[in-house]
Structures are given as structure tokens and as C-alpha cells.
Amino acid sequence: MKLYQQKSGGSGGEGQLRAPDEHAPLQVEDEQIIFQSEERIERVCRASKILNRKQMADSEKLNRIIDVWRAGRGVSCLHVFHNIMPAEAYTREAAIIDALGMQNLTNLKRGDYYGKTQSWPMKQRKQLGILLLYKAMQIFLAEGESQLLPSDLI
Predict the structure, then answer these.
(1) What's the short name of a Pfam family annotated to this entry (predicted)?
(2) In the 8-state DSSP scheme, what is residue 120?
């Protein structure tokens, strides 16, 4: 944003903007203010479009997210278990899905297991998921909650 002093009066320099110095009042260019307010209006319009696409949404998961946003809340986003290989991440995801149960989630399919966990019985897979959920809860309690709102996506 550009700041200028008020227009200088007098002969020769009338109507020109001067560079700011310490003691004179500053003004913001009108164009900058208008541009920033238009940008904000566009962001709000895009956010309202996201909230209004409930009728068009074909995904149960997306519908649930939109319902949370319409209630004035954000979707909690947890970032846990950093820097692991994809196969391990998929296995952990599958174990957590099995621990929570498909009936409590909007996932369309169960996760995939890799490595030794493929041969584990379901009880042991669920126990792994419960352990991972417990660790995720500890991380959540230590770091706190951060909610994603429609305005964060734009």
C-alpha cells in the first residue's frame, strides 16, 4: 500500500503528491482502498458460493463439511504423524478407519493395509487404530485445535 502526504498547495507544485516525511499527515491512495475492498468482497462471495453449493454436492463428506460451516463452525484439521512413508501412512489410516468404524465416517471405502499388517486379524488392526487415535489425541491436546473455515480456502 502506498502512503503519501496531502497534496501540496502553492504555485508550481499544486496538485502533486509529495513523498512522506516524519511530521506531515499521511493519506492512502483511494485506488488502493477500493481495490482492497473489492478483493474482500470477492473472497466473501466465493465463500458464500461454497456454502450455497449444498444442493449440488453429491458427496456425503462434502455435505457434512458444508453443514459444519453453515453452523458457524470450522472443520478441525489435525496434522499428526509427520514424515512417514506412504505405505505406512495408508496402513495407519486404514487402522484408524477400522477402529472408528465405517458407519461413523463418510469414507467410501476402508483403507488398505501394507506389509506385515495385511496378515493381522481384525482385532489386532483395530487395536493399532485405537493406539494411533490415542496418540493423535495426545498431539491434539498438546497443540490445540485449528479450524478450517471457508474463508481459509480462498
Answers:
(1) LEM-3_GIY-YIG
(2) S
> From the CB of residue 63, how many other CB atoms can be counted at a distance below 10 Å?
15
| Contacts with 7 (C-beta within 8 Å, 6 or more apart), sequence order | 14, 15, 16, 17
- Write down the domain spans for the chain: 3-41, 75-153
Question: Looking up cell 453443514, which residue turns up?
Answer: 67
Spatial separation of the C-alpha atoms in residues 153 and 143, rounded to whole Å: 22
Contacts of 108 (CB under 8 A, 6+ apart): none
Task: Extract the C-alpha cell encoding 129.
Answer: 487404530
CB 7 within 8 A of CB 15: yes
pLDDT in tens, 107-118: 888 999 999 999
Residues in the chain, overall count: 154
DSSP 8-class letter at 116: G
CA distance 15 to 129: 71
Shortest CA distance to 94 belongs to which of 75, 118, 62, 61?
Answer: 118
Select from 35, 49, 33 the least CA-distant residue to 154: 49
Confidence check: pLDDT of 96 > 90: yes
